[in-house]
Amino acid sequence: MTNAVPPVRLLVISGSSRQGSFNRQLAHEAGRKAQALGAQTTFVDLVDLDLPVFHADWVGTHGVPPGALKLRELFASHDGLLLACPEYNALPTPLLINSFDWLSTVSADLGLPSGAAATASKPVGLLAASPGALGGLRALPIVRTFLSTNFAMVVMPEQLGLPHAEDAFDDGGALKKVELDKVLTKVVASVVQQARWRSA
């Protein structure tokens, strides 16, 4: 009798929490594809973490906010990440960067690793959606460097930039264009596969 292999657990995060955000739509579609491949997914709304703008004086006065501890806990209990991030002036969103900056300040305690250790060697698939023709691709190299250099994450070589996002989704939330849907499937499958190898 063999023991059943537990499913991999993936966080699904959008760098935008705007109502009607195309990146939220893309993140949710990626999560559905991961579930179809047998993964369990947890969607994280970064706004719900209620993190102030990071600066050292705030930490000195108030300590590490609960939202940063929650984000560390989520990464510690999951095997990888699907991340959809829009670009603001060709950069990642302040919401995303600020959330991860806070994560990096969390120390190991209560049997949990530090924030940076909780992300180390875990796979991440990068996605972006934009009404523009470039699909948010200008920000993704920065996100790639940010996560791999500062958080030791294994960023998959596959990525998706979704242009003209206002016309990209059907009524069910799936991508209309077959070729773009295939790229999304490949990104998600790479993260799921890498997470399985890592946890084997």
What are the main properties of this structure?
200 residues, Rossmann fold, 7 helices, 18% strand
How is this structure best summarized?
This protein has 200 residues and is α/β, with parallel strands linked by helices.
List the helices and strands and how they pair.
Elements: E1 9-14, H1 22-36, E2 40-44, H2 56-62, H3 66-76, E3 80-84, E4 87-88, E5 91-92, H4 94-103, H5 115-119, E6 123-129, H6 140-151, E7 154-162, H7 178-199
Parallel strand pairs: 1-2, 1-3, 3-6, 6-7
Antiparallel strand pairs: 4-5
Helix pairs in contact: 1-7, 3-4
Describe this structure in words.
Helix content is 41%, strand content 18%. The chain has a five-stranded parallel beta sheet, sandwiched between helices. Strands 4-5 form a two-stranded antiparallel ribbon. Strand 1, helix 1 and strand 2 form a beta-alpha-beta unit. The chain is globular. The protein starts with 8 loop residues before the first strand and ends with a helix. It is of the alpha/beta class. It has one domain: Flavodoxin domain (Rossmann fold).
Give the N-to-C terminal Cα separation.
18 Å
Please provide the count of β strands.
Answer: 7
Tell me the count of domains.
Answer: 1
What are the low-pLDDT stretches, counting only 5+ consecutive residues below 50?
none
Q: What is the averaged pLDDT score?
A: 95
Number of helices: 7
Taking the sheet with the most strands, its summary is: 5 strands, parallel
CATH H-level superfamily: Flavodoxin domain
SS-derived structural category: alpha/beta
- The CATH class, by name, is Alpha Beta
What is the CA-based Rg, rounded? 17 Å
- The CATH architecture term is 3-Layer(aba) Sandwich
CATH fold field value: Rossmann fold
Roughly how much helix do the residues carry, as a percent range? 40-55%
* Shape summary: globular
Strand order of the largest sheet: 2-1-3-6-7
Task: Give the helices and strands as they follow along the chain.
Answer: EHEHHEEEHHEHEH
